[in-house]
Design a protein that fits this description.
It is a single chain. This protein has 12 helices and 7 strands. By secondary structure, it is of the alpha/beta class. It has one domain: Aldolase class I (TIM Barrel). The chain has a 7-stranded parallel beta sheet with strand order 1-2-3-4-5-6-7. The termini are far apart.
Amino acid sequence: MSKTKLIYQNNPSPSVDQVGILDRINRITSRSIKNETKVQGLKMALNMIDLTTLEGADTEKKVIQLCNKAQHLHDAYPNLPTVAAVCVYPNFVKTAKNALKGSNIKVAAVATAFPSGQSSSEIKLLDTKLAVDNGADEVDMVISRGKFHSGEYHFVFDEIAAIKEACGKARLKVILETGELGSFDKVRKASDIAIEAGADFIKTSTGKISPAATLPVTLVMLEAIKDYYYKTGIQIGMKPAGGISNAKLALQYLLLVKETLGKDWLNNQWFRFGASSLANDLLMQIVKQETGIYQSKDYFSKD
């Protein structure tokens, strides 16, 4: 049995104070932000986005188009940051890598029978290795929720650890699919398992079910990251994904991160948004803040 697994077994997850979580979220969402700080936050959020296309109808041309958008968010404003990454299926990684050549934008790939996670561990490892062999910088895996609900926590732990090993140098984001977990206590337990098993990031959702990311669930996960950092000194990243479509909400997430984990997490090395539709609203808000004119959505590409 691994040393890490023994540590996890001897340190069960704490119960979550639901009232306390909701009270903190109420205080965050009632906060006002000054204009200068708002512009800084909008640009920061833009630089934290993983632009994503994960549809059965995806084509190479669609992936290339998304990569072009990632590099040219709004050419009328050349000083804008780029997004953090483009996220695709493993078979489109090479296409994305070629389209993003010369940029600092990462290529992420979903793996492990995304989004259901319903496949054998052998197939999940092959899926991961395909993504990495094709050049993925990051891998977004999904946990086996069926095993988790059956109480087979060691299986979930071992599977994450095996996928982490298969990632090599690629960073691993572990998707909990929090909308299927059922309670804050289960979200905390899944977060702790993922972190102890080697996750570089923990991520709320696939974006394929509702509810996806929420502020309260994200706070529960941030608290798990904070406790692990206090215990080990090791930073773990966070990625809320799905349902984050407007700039106001994105800024609330940034406030939550700053007040829970501190400024060291306020960069795309440690915090991401899985929310492609968010990019356009951030762009519209940035233009409004700088020109006083709110542009129509028609001025921005959908993908």
